[in-house]
Amino acid sequence: MSELLAIFGMDTGVFLALTMFVVFMGMILTGYNVAFSFAATALAFAFIGDLTGAFNTATLNTLPGRWFGNISDPVLLAVPLFVLMGAILERSGMAERLLNAVGMLMGALRGGVAAAVVLVGTLLAAATGVVAATVIVMGLLSLPAMVRLGYDNKLSTGAITASGTLAQLLPPSIVLILLAQQMGVGILGLFAGALLPGLMLSGLYVAYVLAVSWWKPDMGPAMPLEERKLEGNPSVQTKLLIAALLGFMVGCVMLLANLRVALIAAVLVLIVSFAIMFFTRMLACEVLIAIVPIVVLILGVLVSIFQGIATPSESGAVGVFGALALTGLNWLFDRLLVRDGATHITPQWRLNRAAAVQAGKSTASVVVLVMTLLFSSTFFSAMFFQLGGSDQTSEWLTSIGGGKVGFVLVAMVAVFLLGINLEFLEITFIVVPIFVPAMEVLGFTQDEKIWFAVMMAVNLNMAFISPPVGFSLFYLQSVAPPEVRTADIHKGAIPFMGLQSIALVILGVFPGIVNTSLELFGS
């Protein structure tokens, strides 16, 4: 066997490493659990490597140290905290309130409800950081309403899956957290570098749904006037109290940056929000109550990170505390509006014991999945490295013509193909340990690594909605009403894939977008 391998210029260890990778990919493509596939192939080939003399089992003694190092990484603490923050917003009913309010606000426009879905999806993506949660919540809340309004099913489902998948790109995204941990780049820089690209992608979605609905009015009709009205008109005292609370929240967040800015922002929000509510009725109050608190929460998390006041893990704790505080504030707003004649809400504490338990369970399931994958993939990558597979793949990747550009092109194709069948967690733990050594050899700087990571996140957005097996399509399919066919969901994703590919090309040709985002928010 050694003679045969010598013909191809490959030693036994490298052959076993590449075979191990092929076997692993075969196992996961058959549907076998990814974490168990990592561990099983690593264990089997450790035994084979020991028999052939290609692997020294004593090197496995380094695994406990590597596992302890991974667990000790404070960056990973941000994962459960941000997931819990999003779960609280979902279970407390604030996500539903946000969608209904923005939908009524933009409903007068052709395609306005779909544009509202994109905007709300963008906010929820930034608040939850989890694709499945965002897509499912948006599907449950908005898709039946758009079907009832006569929206084209393909436009509706495409807007939901595309905007929900932004949870992989917009900070504080779990994808970005894990990419930073695996690639060895600062999470603050990666968050900052991804912000403008994420907003650019959201803007492309809004422009598309409004343009299509303007060109073909039957695809995105305006919401009837009677559905954009709310009964009641809060008293001047109630409006003033709501405006004061909103101003106070904004001031508290801006206080993280500058006292003077905080005072000015608080006064401006108080005056502007009160003026808006004074000259309008219930709808304006509902819109402000639904939008401002969640935007303030997201800004509070990001400002605390970018100002260096809190680490990402500490800002996750800030986010959880803020989400819990908003549930109480939401209940207070409900009581005030109902007292003044609101009929569209019921004042009740939504985050009850059952809802809190469900939020905890969903958070625990994500954390267990991440840590299991981390342990198993560490075993796999250690075996792959010790057998010589890492050096060999790095040599192949660096020998691609075109230097860094050639490497990025090949890497993006590989990520897209893997993203069709695998979750982002699995891809992160599979390919990033292979890419990083090649990037080191090619001389990628920290800023270039951040640019590459943002490109990966955009690419995963595209892979996640690609028919026929994109994960976001299945998430939406699981909650879609009977009127929406599976074919509609798959066809609806194609135009948004085109927008994502345009964004990927733009970022590839103009890396300055990421650098500008990094300079604006990372300094």
Compile the SSE list and pairings.
Layout: H1 2-7, H2 12-29, H3 34-52, H4 63-71, H5 78-91, H6 94-106, H7 112-128, H8 131-149, H9 153-164, H10 174-183, H11 187-215, H12 236-254, H13 259-278, H14 282-306, H15 312-339, H16 353-386, H17 389-398, H18 403-421, H19 424-442, H20 446-464, H21 471-477, H22 486-509, H23 512-522
Helix pairs in contact: 2-3, 2-16, 3-16, 4-16, 5-15, 5-16, 6-7, 6-8, 6-14, 7-8, 7-9, 7-11, 8-9, 8-21, 9-22, 10-11, 10-19, 10-20, 11-20, 11-22, 11-23, 12-13, 12-14, 14-15, 16-19, 17-19, 18-19, 18-20, 20-22
Describe the structure.
The protein has 23 helices and no strands. It is mainly α and 523 residues long. Helix content is 77%, strand content 0%. It is globular.
Radius of gyration: 25 Å
Number of strands: 0
Stretches with pLDDT under 50, minimum 5 residues = 1-8
Largest sheet: none
Write the element-wise H/E pattern from the N-terminal end onward. HHHHHHHHHHHHHHHHHHHHHHH
- SS-derived structural category: mainly alpha
Fraction of residues in helix: over 70%
Q: Indicate the multimeric state.
A: single chain
The number of helical elements comes to 23
Q: What fraction of residues sit in β-strands?
A: under 5%
Q: Characterize the overall form.
A: globular
